[in-house]
Amino acid sequence: MMKFAKLAILAAALAATPIAAQASAIEAGATVYGPEGNEVGKIASVIDGVATLDTGKHQVPLGLDSFGQGATGPTITVTKAQLNAMMDEQLAAAAAGRDAALVEGAALVSADAQPAGMIKSIDTDADIVVVERETGLVSLKREHFAVDANGALMALFTLAQIDSATVAN
């Protein structure tokens, strides 16, 4: 019985070792490899169970469960080219959704989900969007807008940040 207990403890310790090794390998600065053993990027940060992988082109947020452990370090199941292509597609789709919603007269919400006014005008040459607020006009760049999960046009700023933006004449 004592021998069985020692074996059970040893088995538990061995089973935990790969998990601990994997978790400790997923840290800022670690190099991540793809399925062919080629470098995909480096981990820029790990916060709340999400590792941000810097591919040199994109900062890609990945859950820690997305990583495996290979002989050379952390691994993922896609190559750098595949990951960059997926991010390019996601960003293009997000931009298309934003551009479809970003029209004169559209209602705007802030990043803190507060009504933030409406779109007064859009200068497509300069990518400047003028927002009409109760407090006056505010100019923001097109890149400062997105569509939220409900399909509403959203500024990527809180109300306080919007109000401190450049005031249009």
From TrEMBL:
Residues 1-23 form the signal peptide. The keyword Signal applies. It comes from the Bacteria. Keywords: Signal. This is PRC-barrel domain-containing protein. It comes from Altererythrobacter litoralis.
